[in-house]
Amino acid sequence: MKREQSKKYLWLQRLRIFTQLLFFLLFFWLFLQTHYPGEDYLKTTVERFFHFDPLLLLTTLLASRVLFAALLLSLITLTATLLFGRFVCGWLCPLGAVHQFFSFIFKKTRWLKPRKDDRASLVPKYLILVLVLAVSLLSVNLVGYLDPLSFLYRSFAVFISPLLSLGLSQSGNLAYLLGLKSLGQAVSQALGNLALNGLFQNALLIGGLFLAAILLNAWKERFWCRYLCPAGALLGLVSRLNLFQLKIDPEKCINCHLCSIHCQTNARPYPAEDWRSSECIFCETCAAICPTAAISFPLRLQATRMRGVDLNRRRLLLTSLTGLFLAPIFKFSPARHRSHPALIRPPGAAPEPEFLARCVKCGECLKVCPTNALHPALTEAGPEGIWTPMLVPRIGYCEYYCSLCTQVCPTGAIRELTVEEKVTVKIGTAWVDKTRCLPYALGKPCIVCEEHCPVSPKAIQLVRVETLTPDGTVATNLAPFVNVDTCIGCGICENKCVVMDLPAIRVSSIGEHRSSRNRLVLPTVEDQNQLRP
Questions:
Q1: Are strands 505-508 and 247-248 parallel, antiparallel or unpaired?
Q2: pTM for this structure?
Q3: What are the φ/ψ torsions at residue 241 (nearest 5 degrees)?
Q4: How far apart are CA 365 and CA 253, in angstroms?
Q5: Is the pLDDT of residue 117 over 80?
Q6: Residue 107 pairs with which residues in a beta bridge?
Q7: Which terminus of the chain faces fewer neighbouring Cβ atoms within 10 Å, N or C?
Q8: Are 389 and 150 in contact (CB under 8 A)?
């Protein structure tokens, strides 16, 4: 009897590991599918994973006061958690799978030594959840920094993807050097098919935080899940009522404490009356390793209120007040009064306040951009906009007939546009620096920016200019002149400018269609009165 019971939960544990692997591979496959497919529109809803995240539903709803319909799929997650406990964290979450894998590695290398009695408080993630919800009430959306899906996707898009691109590129070069032409061609073909972007701003910072989260598993197993994850905290609160309950047979139990020592989330399965169901992710480890098969999780059709983490009311109140006082600090930014010239948002982006309230910094738009033009912002959008997407023309430009970034946003921060709609959207304006432009400054011919301008009729026109050279002669050449009324700010002119260091033509966010304030000329008193609600 004991042997059969142990085998049952051992197979359940293996099934759970298989399920984790399956969902991680699904997440990674959707990640790889988030690229230019050779057509104008994606056939796969690559952002679907995010729509099952109830934390994104709650925070974006509170911050933007708008319900994004696709996020209603997260009600399925909430219902399943209510009935069957916090199994999503242990069976389905791709970031949870990553943390468990590295926790396993650290155990095998003996870097991680589980303790018999771990009394560390599990309250921090609940306080983080309360803080995130509190600031959301004041339209500050901070969920993207610690939401597991946003954190994992952003880390993969900005850090892992360039590393993978570099690794494949170097492998292909090595294959050619070794005379393995067929292998080199295969690697090059694979690299081209994956369409991985090879460079991102702030990649070192974002990658460093990801590696730190991984290394913390060497201190405590699934450290992120135990102490930091606000999504896990939300599911923990919902899972107070569930149909699965821990049961320990007192006649079989030998008080070895193995179940508590190897519990991945410190749910304290022993003794049974101390079991914290809100922390249990139903990994089945305790039942699988029990030497006497004393532990089981019977299904009872009548739900019973179970024990969770003791949340002190004073802590909750203090955290809520901290969030309410902290929210205005994130609003302190010059960009709220006068837009940063480098803050060029993707086409289809909502007006800045609404955009910041909806954007969860996931990096979907960064990954799908075929020209590597979108990058995570740092200080350009103020404290509230760290890691939100912005166009960096010196690295890449907004492809004229491309609307992919508008098709992948999981929260509606970027409105979906057809290609026909997208080409009419103005995201900024180009400006010629006559002190650096070759025809203006040196009297040398150059019309590169005009040749690359995709707008029809061209927004960059050519005018004849005369330049006095140092030898006293006058050089006559065609020079670029920007028609600010037709320029859409795609940035290809800045990207292709032959002047190194600082391009002679540069794009700023001025004149963008999404803003009635970010205009070329400061508004008059009459204009300001009209802009007031």
A1: unpaired
A2: 0.92
A3: -110, 120
A4: 53
A5: no
A6: none
A7: C
A8: no
